[in-house]
Fold this sequence. Notes:
- The chain is α/β, with parallel strands linked by helices.
- It has one domain (2-156): 4-Layer Sandwich (Purple Acid Phosphatase, chain A, domain 2), CATH 3.60.21.10.
- The protein is built from four helices and eight strands; from the N terminus they run βααβαββββββα.
- β4 and β5 (97-102) form a beta hairpin.
- The model has no long low-confidence stretch (mean pLDDT 97).
Amino acid sequence: xxxxxxxxxxxxxNIIKYCDRPFKNVEEMNNEIIKRHNEVVxxxxxxxxxxxxxxxxxxxAKKYIKRLKGNHIFLMGSHDxxxxxxxxxxxxxxxxxxIFICHYAMRVWERSHxxxxxxxxxxxxxxxxxxxxxxxGVDNNNFYPISFYNLRDIMKLKPDNFNLVK
Length: 166
């Protein structure tokens, strides 16, 4: 199973204020996001993190990762200086659906003219999607990662991409 998430901001106390997150402190936020992650993700699932995992260094990031179920793929966001592999885009076809992920939302993206999906973060639930886009950030998804199957149901209700070739 594939899961998608972004903008966890582990260890970033100011994000609680900036995004009006419902947590008393950073420890409560970290623990709750980890708890919700582990409620849905299984050990063998693949989790794509769309950026802004943590502001911390690599050693602290590893401590957060060890607490999370799943096999993890990390993309660069605005705050991921800890990442050695500076991967900005992830793309894959899952069950016939092409998915394109970047930390930032795009107006057009690879295969958008064939109704591919653009999954993004960075906007913390404040940017309206266009066509087959979805903000996978925790602020937009009740602090849970979102599964491929849940996304498929969401995308069925969204309009086609404006540049769809018919």
